[in-house]
Amino acid sequence: MKDLHAWAAIAIIGMAATTGDVLLSYSMKRVGDVGELWKRRGVLAVIRRVLGTPTFALGVMAMAVAFYSLLFGLSWGNLSLVVPASASLTFVANAVAARIFLHERVGRRRWIAALLVAGGVVLMAL
User: Fold this and answer.
1) Structural domain boundaries of the chain?
2) pLDDT tens readout for residues 22-56
3) DSSP state of 90
4) For residue 96, what are the contacts with CB-CB under 8 A and spacing of at least 6?
5) Which of 97, 126, 88, 63 is nearest to 10 (CA)?
6) pTM for the full model?
7) Less crowded by CB within 10 Å, the N or C end of the chain?
8) 3-state secondary structure string, 45-74?
9) What is the pLDDT of residue 123?
10) Cα of 65 vs its chain's centroid, Å
């Protein structure tokens, strides 16, 4: 039963971390060049612009869910399974989400890497 709980936590970590990564990336693309904004208007302008982006707060909340799910997963499963499996699944999900939601070009090398990572997760699960 603990293995089922650990795998559920791994799945939640992957979904929440990917959601957070996509939302934070989208937010920062809307903010623009932080270095340039910092030079022109200062650090407070950067903070106001970042915190004023609604998807930024949602992204931070999703990352918090991923973090707390990691804590639960570590209490139910072994470190040697939970951390690599959740990181691997997040890597694969990020490639898919970047293509679908952010319309990023994901090259063949990244797709091959994602498939190899997914294969590693399958080997760990056996």
Assistant:
1) 2-125
2) 999 999 999 888 888 888 888 888 888 889 899 99
3) H
4) 114
5) 88
6) 0.85
7) C
8) HHHHHHHCCHHHHHHHHHHHHHHHHHHHHH
9) 84
10) 11
